[in-house]
Specification:
The protein has about 210 residues and is an alpha/beta fold. The protein has one domain (about 50-210): 3-Layer(aba) Sandwich (Rossmann fold). It has seven helices and nine strands. It has helices at about 20-30, 35-40, 55-70, 85-95, 125-130, 145-150, 210; strands spanning about 50, 80, 100-105, 120, 135-140, 155-160, 175-180, 185, 200-205. The strands form two sheets. It has a seven-stranded mixed sheet, with helices on both faces. Strands 1-8 form a two-stranded antiparallel ribbon. Strand 2 (about 80), helix 4 and strand 3 form a beta-alpha-beta unit. Helix 3 (about 55-70) crosses helix 4 (about 85-95).
């Protein structure tokens, strides 16, 4: 783990690390008892981190989104709602074959440094404005019903997180597929014990036919 002149660890999201390197990085933080403070902004960028991105995880999500275009007649953009600082969009845009728009209500709940290009707009207003072909929702606030509203509209959605810690429990009463990602990491994991709590959950995504054609 590298430290800068201000004695804070590097920002793991300054660029994408391979999964194994990201896991090792957080193992070291966990041994020092520093995971929570690090994810609450004690890193060189002052970045708040919920899901921990790595090359394999981003590639996995991008592949899902690109496959969805084959099964979906809607040619609208991809929309990341509740996007925080938009880092997920930045990582995905290189790999996704359609424009991704990032929005966030910016309600002040967290001390997040929002770039100007992240549009200030709440989740449902974003969907109504952009009529997206696909929605990405990572770490939806606990008991939020935005995910449910989007699923009811029939829009393909990738929901990322831990169902016991974010989003609304009723969301998972709707048909969905669990990706069972090997690369999902989050701030609440036990890295040394290899106990991981998050995954990618797909709603309104019928990718079976396209996958079989590969």
């Amino acid at each position: 783990m590298r430290y800068q002149q201000n004695d804070e660890p590097e920002d793991i999201h300054s660029k994408l690390m391979p999964y194994k390197k990201a896991l090792l990085f957080f193992e070291k933080l966990e041994r020092n008892g520093d995971v929570k403070s690090y994810c609450n902004g004690a890193n060189t960028s002052g970045r708040w981190i919920f899901q921990i991105y790595n090359k394999e995880f981003i590639s996995e999500i991008a592949t899902i989104i690109n496959r969805s275009f084959v099964m979906n007649e809607n040619d609208g953009p991809v929309l990341e709602i509740m996007s925080g600082d938009g880092r997920l969009t930045e990582f995905l845009q290189i790999l996704v074959k359609r424009k991704i728009i990032a929005t966030d209500a910016k309600d002040g709940r967290y001390n997040i440094a929002y770039p100007k290009w992240v549009e200030t707009l709440d989740a449902i207003e974003s969907v109504e404005k952009y009529q997206p072909s696909f929605v990405i929702l990572s770490w939806e606030p606990y008991l939020s019903i935005s995910g449910i509203e989007i699923v009811k509209r029939g829009i393909p959605m990738a929901w990322i997180g831990n169902p016991s810690m974010c989003g609304h429990p009723d969301l998972f009463d709707f048909p969905h597929t669990v990706v069972k990602s090997e690369y999902a990491l989050s701030r609440h994991d036990a890295f040394i014990e290899r106990k991981f709590k998050t995954d990618i959950y797909l709603f309104n995504c019928n990718l079976e036919r396209e996958t079989k054609s590969q």
